[in-house]
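To fix ideas, we close by showing one paired sequence and structure record:
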Amino acid sequence: MQRPQVTRLSTTPIKGFGLTHPDAIQLDTNGAVGDRDFFVVNPDADLFSITRTGVFAGWTAIFEPTTSVLSVTSPDGEVFRDDVVEGEGVVVDFWGSRDVTGHLVIGPWSEFLTKIAGQPVSLVRTQAPGAGFDERAVTLVSQESVAELGRLTDTPDIDLRRFRMLIDFSGVDPYEEETWNQQPLTVGSAVLLVRGAVPRCNATTRNPDTGTRDLKTLQLLSQGRGMTPNDFGEDLNMGVYADVLEPGVISVGDELVLSPTT
């Protein structure tokens, strides 16, 4: 029997920026190396994320850790590039679920990002590399689950990128991944521990390329699925979280091998 396979990997050095799709990722305990090493805050040190605004969704970023140089590219292809110099420390509340420690990035970055955002913002580098995830280090969703949501709501071709998951895969029944809770999952040379379903937010309503709100995704989830269980109670869910049990490399095309608990 053919096992499910990874179809796409999605990362971004700056939380809330446009996703890039590498052929392979190195996983450590904080998820994909180089993923979400930075995030943006307002003057009150509140997270300035894609849930609240889509202004950065069309911008992509590349960080070179050996030289501490960050580059961002606009939707029109213009590149801004400068050093990352850390300033004072900050602790930022991520949606009331966890505090993330980091350092404000000094230099031209605040002025540059403020012009894009249209309001004062600052860039923060996480103290622990990759720590800018919301709840758990890894997220996964199947093509079948998203396709089923589209079928039930007469909304074909829902773009999986709306859900901003680290790992997209195919080869299972719709929502099957939500039955894997607390089971080890081998993907490539990494071993994950699947956790509960991911509650969705307004970020999913935004076009992955432009950041504009152009699909009432939460209404579709309510219509097509309703409230379903997760580790926090019940919510409008899609995809699952996972922790990293054993670091390793995951590539597009790798099989997902479940090890059911006894």
